[in-house]
Amino acid sequence: MMTRKIITMNNAFTRLMLVLLTVLTMTACSTVPEVEGDAPEAAYFDSTKIVAADEHYLSDDVYDPWEGFNRSMYRFNYRADRYVILPVVDGYKYVTPEVMQDGIHNFFENIREIRTFINSVLQLEFTKSYQTAGRFATNTTVGLLGFMDAATYFGIPKHQEDFGQTMGYWGMGSGPYLVLPLLGPSTLRDGVGIGVDTLVMNAIRDELEMKWEEELALDVMNAIDTRANVSFRYYETGSPFEYEMVRKLWTTKRQLDIEK
Amino acid sequence: MKRALTVLVAGLLSTTCWSNQQPYDFPTLGAEYSKYEATVIGTLPEVQADLPEGSPLKNRRIEIFEDREVPEPFFFDAELGYSTAWQDDEAPLVFLIAGTGASHSGKKNTDMARAYHHAGFHVVSISSPTYMNFIVAASNSGVPGHAYEDAKDIYRVMETVWDEFKDDIQVSDFYVAGYSLGGFNAAFVTKLDEDRKVFNFRKALLINPPVSLYNSISLLDRMSQNIPGGTDNFSKFFDKLLVEVGKAYTDSDNVEMDGEFLFKAYKAVNPDNEELAALIGVSFRISSASLIYTSDVINKRGFVVPANVTMGANSSPGAYEIVSHQVGFTDYFHGYFYPYYKEQHPELDREGFARSMNLAALEPYFKTTDKIEVMHNVDDIILEPGEIDFFPRVFGDRAKIYPKGGHCGNMAHKDNVAHMINVFKQ
What distance separates the 2 farthest-apart alpha carbons in chain A? Predict the structure, then answer.
């Protein structure tokens, strides 16, 4: 029992460290375009004349020193999505009746209430904490282990808090922008937050003493359900500035979520 | 019994005729109707056509040019995305062409697809020739915006798609419909079809098309001048917008930024007409920036990116992105589009070329055919004053002009959807 706990915790921890290590080793990827000859020629609308050095522009807003790595990871995620994850998600949607998909989604959302509860407490948000506890209690009992969202029916508001937000709440800056493998846009702080939330959830889950194959099945289902409920698709915005757009919108939204 | 039925049917018919005489019901979010609000917000749910939820469209990809070399930053766009919705049995097929900078799976094409598919049509939805993926994968020149060249590109896409499916589905007749620039494109595609005769379109429907492309792009460029401080302040305006929408979000109970939330945010921000015009300007500016940068990177014309600079997979557009957002469609016309075509056709003159990108160029053709139908609004913001008269003058009864709706704001309205279907079913 004890050893297994260590192994799962170790796995999550190793995963996290691997991510950070890759970041640090791959930041060398250049984001400067290739120039033929000595220097860029003048363009018809020339950026060196039009863009003012002392002016503040939208695209400068996000601190992104690892841009080269992030862009590579963005492409990797697109390929993983297109060739592996989305086909699996589509297969799942095809074989699973919609009522069941909803039930499964409710089930995992209910489990995620634990994370929201812990982090609401850590942020001293008492209204959010008892509402979230109320939702979890209601859905786990009346909602039949969470498969039905009875709490929403009874009008208990839903919240979403994680450890990244908790760190932000206590004044920690977001750190550099970071595109995580498979998980997508994030920041260094939020990446660490995801790791901490995962460690905590694994520790709680270990109390249930499930078999490892059950845990694996649960993890896989959780991943599929999560992707099935995110409509974002890489490179579907039709904009050559998608990387910048996503970076700006993502970090803005996270900032708002911390203030919420 | 039979007579009772006849009376009943006659009665029903007369009430439908009568109800068509009713004033056009177009409710608004703000206190007063505004053509700008109609353009931004669109049709409110209570007067939308009653259609099945969700999109019937299935996304697909297809290769248009064999061995096309795609620059690294666009590696994911080598094939053209499009979407289809088939019927089980023989049915008419309608091609839908999206508006400026819009995708085949954008909201307006999806809404049209829902309507036509529900009414029993096969549907093929195509992105605008000004959409990034189309420029990369399906534009012959990579310099979009040319009435005749874009029509050839679209026609090639239609043929390639039809080749792929002609053995799988049964089609009775072909139709084409498009909104905004897509409506303009649909007219030139229909004209091209008269020569090529692959589809022999039975009808075409142009929804809120421009008359003169140059007039419309000038109007849209001027709208982005409504940004406080002018277009140079694009970044600041956009940032302020994000902050205001953000505030509405943190103040609300919504966890997701969905449609319901956006309605609330709109009410909370409560923009006036000038701000709405600026917003429309910004939205078109985002489209023009994408088009300009994409085309320039592909063709290396040195318009915003220096000609000797090659953008790689990891290259950051940086300052080039900022410049792309500071120039507009008219800059593109004068500094890029016209010079490009002038090289190939030295006889061109600037003003004549601008004038020729015009529906009036097809007026002789329009007078010889009754294929083309128009659905437009008297207060469309992309038309110069008086330009709307072109349609009743040239198309007569085949031009249906609504009293409200701005630019494409009423496409989902139940009356408009009924009209869209009716003109093809006649």
Answer: 71
CATH number of the structural domain B32-211+358-425: 3.40.50.1820
Q: CA of B296: which chain A residue's CA is closest?
A: A43
Please report where in the chains the tokens 């697109």 appear, as a residue.
A78
Rounded Cα–Cα distance for residues A142 and B291 (Å): 54
Helices (H), B270-413: 273-299, 318-326, 329-332, 338-344, 350-356, 363-366, 390-395
pLDDT per residue over B314-343, tens digit each?
999 988 998 998 899 999 999 999 999 999
Per DSSP, the three-state class of A136 is helix
- The pTM for the full model equals 0.88
Structure tokens at B158: 């239609």
As beta bridge partners, residue A34 has: B310
Is the minimum CB–CB distance between A238 and chain B shorter than 8 Å?
A: yes
Sign of the dihedral defined by the CA atoms of residues B14, B17, B20, B23, in that order: negative
Domain boundaries, chain B: 32-211+358-425, 218-344
Subunit contact B317:A41, Cβ cutoff 8 A:
no
Tokens of B144: 């979009």
Partner B contacted by A59 (CB < 8 A): yes
Sheet holding B203-207, edge to edge: B58-62, B80-85, B122-126, B91-97, B171-179, B203-207, B372-377, B399-402
The radius of gyration computed from the CA coordinates of chain B, to the nearest angstrom, equals 22
User: Which of B73, B308, B313 is opposite residue A36, by nearest beta carbon?
Assistant: B308
Enumerate the H helices of A154-211 as residue ranges.
163-169, 188-206
Asked if A102 is an interface residue toward chain B (Cβ–Cβ < 8 A), one would say: no
CB B416 within 8 A of CB B402: yes
List the domain boundaries for chain A.
2-24+66-259
> Residue A175 region, left (φ>0) first, then alpha (ψ -120 to 50), else beta?
left
ipTM comes to: 0.85
SS3 B177: strand
**Could you give phi then psi for residue B81, rounded to 5 degrees?**
-80, 140
Kindly state the tokens that stand for B126: 């195509």
* Cα B345 to Cα A242: distance, rounded to the nearest angstrom: 35
Distance (Å, rounded) from C-alpha A106 to C-alpha A130? 19
On the question of pLDDT at A255 being above 90, the answer is: no
A32 Cβ under 8 Å from any chain B Cβ: yes
Rounded Cα–Cα distance for residues B424 and B116 (Å): 10
Q: Which residue has the tokens 């309608």?
A: B94
Residues of chain B with pLDDT under 70: 1-22, 228-235, 252-261
| Amino acid letter, residue B290 | S
* Per-residue model confidence as pLDDT tens digits over A201-219: 888 888 888 888 888 888 8
**Residue B127: CA count within 13 A, CB half-sphere:** 30
Phi-psi bin for A184: left (phi > 0), alpha (psi -120 to 50), beta?
left
Higher-confidence residue: B335 or A11? B335
Q: Which residues of chain B neighbour A67 with C-beta distances below 8 Å?
A: 314, 316
Contacts of A56 in chain B (CB under 8 A): 235-236
* Interface contact A230, partner B, CB < 8 A: no
* Cβ contact, residue pair A241, B290, below 8 Å: yes
Q: What CA–CA distance (Å, rounded) separates B226 from B212?
A: 22
